[in-house]
Amino acid sequence: MEYLTMHPYTFFAVAAVIAGLLYTVKSAKAQFALLASYVALLGGFTWHEFLASRVIETPYMYADELSVVLMAALTVLGAASALQGYFYSRNGGDTPKRIARHNAALVAFLTVLVGIFISQHLGLIWAFLEASTLLAAILIYHNRTRSSTEATWKYVFICSIGIAIAFAGILFLGIAYDHHDLSLATLHDHAHVLNSSWVKMSILFQLVGASVKMGVVPLFSADIDAKDAAPSHISALLSGAMMCAGFTAIFRVYSVYANTELRPWLNGLFLLTGALSILIAAIYILKVRNFKRLLAYSCCEHAGIVLVAIGCGAWYAAVLHLLLHAFAKTALYFQYNHYFRIFKTKDIHAGGRYMSIHPAGSGVLILGMLALCGLPPMGTFITELITIRTLLATPWWGWAIPVLFLFVVIIWALTSHINGVLFSTDNGEEKYQKHVPRTMALETLPQYALLGIVIWLGFFAPQSIVAYIQRASVIYPLH
Asked: pLDDT tens for residues 46-87?
């Protein structure tokens, strides 16, 4: 009975039923109960997959340690985003019909991400990535403004191009590998006998295609616009959960060929892509004034750090940094919503005296800034330190010099922006004090919880959890 109720197909079926009910039932209490039921379902399925890790329940969909780690993070992020979505809809005055459509799309979107995490076949990963584009488009378009319409169409257009490029990469792999089975395990078994030229072309195309999902060069621009136009809790999911999905697509392919003669070429490709992403992020972070775009370009930086970590062999740091960034960036996007409600603008230079106006929110901004800068006591300090130390111990140690320089530039830019929000006297405290309801302080509790996870995972996680994340970063597929 346990096998039946927790089987992947059963999870997808129940999730589809919940999404359908969310779309048809407009009652606020029913919506809340259905969202809570879905979070419980996702948590239960994650727990089942943890207990049944590496048990093949379906031919091409079963979980390994990486799947379980990402699903656990998705459960936390999904629950937090659903709660933040409730606050967002309440303050924005959304109609019951719009809320129902949003919640149904949210559940479907999270379910598709689960499919990406547990898929062990390139075709399935590609199909779920394409589905995530369509569902994300519904969530980005939620506000139905001119900017959200433009961002939605741009996101669909560029993502479709990216997914098409990734599909071409899969076709190239079919040419290199005279077999119809493109499961990760089979590819791993035959990785040493494939045509290296076609494999390189395939990996390059798949990396370019998945870059729009992970938010790195070359197709990062649609991701920036989408995060700017979407509601803050959807921007958080695009920055955290969607980045995890893009990482999964990239890392699964990397894991197949990392133990072959292609490894030096692979590492160079990932180091170059990561470093360019950090460079692009640094340039835009220096001059950007839009708060949400600042956070979006910071995502590009941290996705680049993850790729650098993969390229230099710091796979544990890559997976852990991915998780820590997801939690920290989610808290900051939630706090941005408070900033917008107070100052009625996205302009980061239009605010000031935030420490006096919203003390609870200021604490979130400070801790979040430390996380984005990779400074103690945030766990990102540990992952960036591991990445740089590992990079210095490799033949590619020269990459550490420009990366460290860009870190310094980004730290200076981020601290300048956030300090201006916290302490600038250009906008008087009295002008905005009346616009800060007391409930805002309570709304920061989930944000502090997420930032607490960032500190805990980096410095105080039990050895059992550290060991599990290390197993999740091992570069081989399931057998």
From this structure: 999 999 877 777 889 989 999 999 999 999 999 999 999 988
In a domain, 197, yes or no: no
Burial 319-334 (b: 16+ CB within 10 A, else e): bbbbbbbbbbbbbbbb
pLDDT of residue 212: 95
For helices 122-140 and 232-239, the axis angle rounded to 10 degrees is 160
**In this predicted model, what pLDDT tens digit does every residue of 169-204 receive, in sequence order?**
999 988 887 777 889 988 988 888 777 899 999 999
pLDDT of 284 higher than 50? yes
Torsion sign, CA atoms 206, 211, 217, 219:
positive
Pick the closest to residue 263 from 211, 196, 205 (CA basis).
196
- Output the six-digit token pair for 417: 């922006």
Residue 248 forms part of a structural domain: no
Closest CA to 444 of 343, 347, 352, 365: 365
Contact 436, 362 (CB under 8 A): no
Q: What is the tally of structural domains in the chain?
A: 1
Q: Among residues 136, 127, 195, 119, which one has the least CA distance to residue 167?
A: 127
Q: Print the domain residue range for 431.
A: 274-479
pTM of the model: 0.96
159: which 2 tokens?
């993502």
- In angstroms, rounded to a whole number, what is the distance separating the alpha carbons of residues 49 and 72? 10
What's the pLDDT at 23?
97
Distance (Å, whole) CA 131 – CA 129 = 5
The answer to whether the beta carbons of residues 308 and 387 sit under 8 Å apart is: yes
Structural tokens at position 445: 């509790």
Please write the tens of the pLDDT for every residue from 234-271. Answer: 999 999 999 999 999 999 999 999 888 999 999 999 99
Q: Would the pLDDT of 19 be above 80?
A: yes
Residue 420 counted as domain residue: yes
| Structure token digits, residue 342 | 């107070």
> Which ranges in 53-195 belong to alpha helices (H)?
65-92, 96-118, 122-140, 146-176, 184-189
Residue 472 lies in a domain: yes
